Amino acid sequence: MTIDAPQIAAKRKAGQFVVIMTEEKGERIPLTIVDSDKDAGTVTIIFQVVGKTTMCLAAMKEGEDLFAVLGPLGTPTEMEKFGTTVVVGGGVGIGVAYPIIKALQEAGNKVIAIIGARSKNILILENEIQAICDRLIVATDDGSYGVHGFVTNVLQDLIESGEVINRVFAIGPVPMMKFLCEVTRPYKIKTIVSLNPIMVDATGMCGACRVAVGGKTKFACVDGPEFDGHDVDFDLLTNRLRMYNGEEEEARKGCRCHE
Amino acid sequence: MSKKEKIPRQMMPEQDPKVRSTNFDEVPLGYTEEQAVIEAGRCLQCKNPLCIKGCPVDVNIPEFIKLITERDFIGAARKIKDTNSLPAICGRVCPQESQCESQCILGKKGEPVAVGRLERFVADYERNAGAVQIPEIPASSGKRVAVVGSGPAGLTVAGDLVKCGHKVTIFEGLHKAGGVLIYGIPEFRLPKDIVDAEISYLEKMGVEVVTNAVIGRGKTVDDLLDEGFDAVFLGVGAGAPVFMDIPGENLSGIYSANEYLTRSNLMKAYRFPEYDTPIARGKNVAVLGAGNVTMDSARTALRLGAENVTVVYRRTEVEMPARAEEAHHAKEEGVQFKLLTNPVEYIGDENGWVKQMKCIRMELGEPDDSGRRRPVPIEGSEFVMDVDMVVVAIGTNANPVIPVTTPGLETNRRGYIVVTDEETGKTSREGVYAGGDIVTGSATVIMAMGAAKKAARAIDAYLK
C-alpha cells in the first residue's frame, strides 16, 4: 500500500516504521516502511491481514484517508560498509528486509538475500530484491518454488560452503529469527533482528513494547526495532505478543469492513 | 469570631462510591448555583489577599468570588480567564489545599473557602451557557511560534501568545491534542469533552494544532527554526515511564501507568470492543506508588471490574504524594492500601502472565535527600501476594527524543532541559524556551501552566 505522507518520505531511513490508525476508534499499529519516494511524497507499507486493523486497512480503497499516520519512528538500521552481508526475510518480513538490502547495497556491501515463504503464491518482492542484491536465494516450506526447506537451512548451508559473512540481518516471524540466531551464534556472526512487539504510542512513552536484550529492558519503539539477535529474549517476546489473543479475536469478529 | 465563619464550607455533591466505582462518569458533580453563592459569601474579601500569592498563575481570587456573590457567574469566569486560560481543568485537578486554599485566613481557625470548587463552578457555568467568548485578537505581529507538546504548558503558552498577535502552531505527537489531560487523567476526574472544548477555544482564537507530529523524529527543532518559526516552546512533558528493574517485570499483565492509562483514556480501551484497543481486566490488581497517577490507575482498575485493587507503597500514608482527596476517593471506592511494602520479584504462570508478586516489608529509617524518612527493608520479611495484573506507577523520566535531536540544547544529568532563568524558561538555545515537566520533572498541571505563562511573557518580549 502506498501512503501519501511527504514529510515522512523526506526523512525516513531504512529500518524505520510508521504508526497508523484506520479510524478514530481504531488501534494504533506499527508498520515498517518498505520504500519511499521523496519526489512523489509517498511511503510504501506491506502488511499481512492478521487482525481487525489490518482487515480494515485491506478494505480501504484508493484515495481514502487513514485517520492517522505518524512517523518515521524508531532508530534507523546501523549502516556502514560491513563487507559481505546476508539479509534473510521470511513471509511478510521480506517487506522489512527490502529497504535494508537497498541501504546495504548503497553503502557498498555485497548483499546475499535469502527470502522464504510457506509457498510460492505468497512470496513477495522477489523481482524487486533480485534487482538490487548480488545474489538471491529463494526457499519455500512446501517446495513449490526455489529451495525446498526453511531459510535457516539455506543460511546454514551458505555458512558451511565457506562464504565469509560479516553481518546477517534476519527479519520475519519470531521463531524464524530465533532459529536463525542459533545458526549464526556458533560462528559469532553478528545478527541483527527487527522486532515487532505490541506498541501503543510508539514514541517511548508507554513501555508496551519492552523487550529484554542482553538481560536489560529496552523499548523497541525508540531503542529499536533492531537489536543484536544473539542477546534477544525471544521467548519473552512470544509471550508478550500473545497478551491480547482473546481480545484480538473478539475485535476481528466485530469487524464490519468487508460488509 | 466573625459571622462569616459560621457558614460551613459547602460540600460538593458526588456520585455514591458504590455506584461510581462501576462507571467512568465524573465523580464530583459540582456546586449548584445556591451552593456557589453561599460558599462565595464565606470569603472575607481580604484587603491583602494571601490566596493570590498561593496561585502559580496569579488568579484574582477575591474578585472572581465577589462576582459570584453578585450572581455574575459569567463575569467571574472571565475574571479568572484574565490570567488562567484553563479554569474548568484547574478547578478539577489543581491541588488547591497546598496552594490558594492553604493561604486562606478562614483556614487558620476553620475551613478555607473552597476556591477550587468555585472556579470549577463558574467555568462550567460559562461553558454550559454557551457564553464562552473569543477574545479580540490584536493585529498580526508577523511572528510565528512553534509549541511542541499540547499538554497544560503548551496550551497555556499557545493561548497567551496568540492573544499577543503571534501566529502559533502546536505540534502534538499523538493523534489527539491535550497531552496528559487526554492520555493521563481519567474521564472520571477530568471529562475529555472539557479538554476538547479548551482546545477548540484555542483553535477559534487562531492557534493551529498539528497532530501526529513527533518533533525530533520527523521534523527537528532546527527544522522548525529553519522553516521560519521565530521561537520554539518545548512543553513535551516527562513522558518516559520508570520501572523498578526487578526480576519478572516484563511478564504479561504488568503495565507502566503510562501504558495502562493511555490505553484506557486516550485509546478508550475501557469501551472495548466499541473501541479496538484492548486492556487487561485483572481480578487481583496491585498498583505501585502513591501519587495521583497511582490513584488514577487503581480507580481505573476497579472500574474495569477488578475484585481487589491494592496500592503498594514503600513508605507510609504521611509521605504519600497524592492529593488527600484522591487517596480519600480511592479508599471510599474500595481501593486497599498496603503500606511500608515494596515488591522485589514477580512470578509468572506457564504462559508468562504474572501470577504472584513477592514483596518485602519496610520500616522508616533516617531522612533522605527529599527530607522524608528513608524506607529500609526488614530482613526476612518477604511474603507473596497473588496478583494477575500490576500497574507500575512510581514516576516518569524525561523522554530523550528532543534533547538528543537538538544540538546545543543543555540538559541536566537526569535528562531534563536546563532553563537559564526560571522567570523566562530560556534554554541554552537562542529562541528556544521550555517549561513544565520536561524542565522540573513530574509535577502538576498548574505548575506547568505557571512556568508556561512566564515563558509566554519572555517569548513575547523576545519577539518584539
What does this structure look like?
The complex is a heterodimer of chains A (259) and B (464). Chain A is α/β, with parallel strands linked by helices and 259 residues long. In chain A, 28% of the residues lie in helices and 27% in strands. In chain A, a hairpin with a 2-residue loop joins strand 12 (210-213) and strand 13. The longest helix of chain A has 14 residues, at 93-106. Chain A starts with a strand and ends in a 6-residue tail after the last helix. The mean pLDDT of chain B is 92. In chain B, helix 16 links the parallel strand 8 (308-312) and strand 9. The longest helix of chain B has 19 residues, at 445-463. Chain B is α/β, with parallel strands linked by helices and 464 residues long. Chain B contains 19 helices and 16 strands. Chain B has helices at 17-20, 33-41, 50-53, 61-69, 73-81, 87-93, 100-103, 106-109, 115-128, 152-162, 180-183, 192-204, 221-226, 257-266, 292-303, 324-333, 401-405, 437-440, 445-463, and strands at 144-148, 167-171, 208-210, 231-234, 240-241, 254-256, 284-288, 308-312, 336-338, 341-348, 354-367, 373-377, 383-386, 389-392, 396-397, 432-434. Chain B has a 5-stranded parallel sheet. In chain B, strands 6-14-7-8-9 form a 5-stranded parallel sheet. In chain B, strands 10, 11, 12 and 13 form a 4-stranded antiparallel sheet that branches. Chain B starts with 16 loop residues before the first helix and ends with a helix.
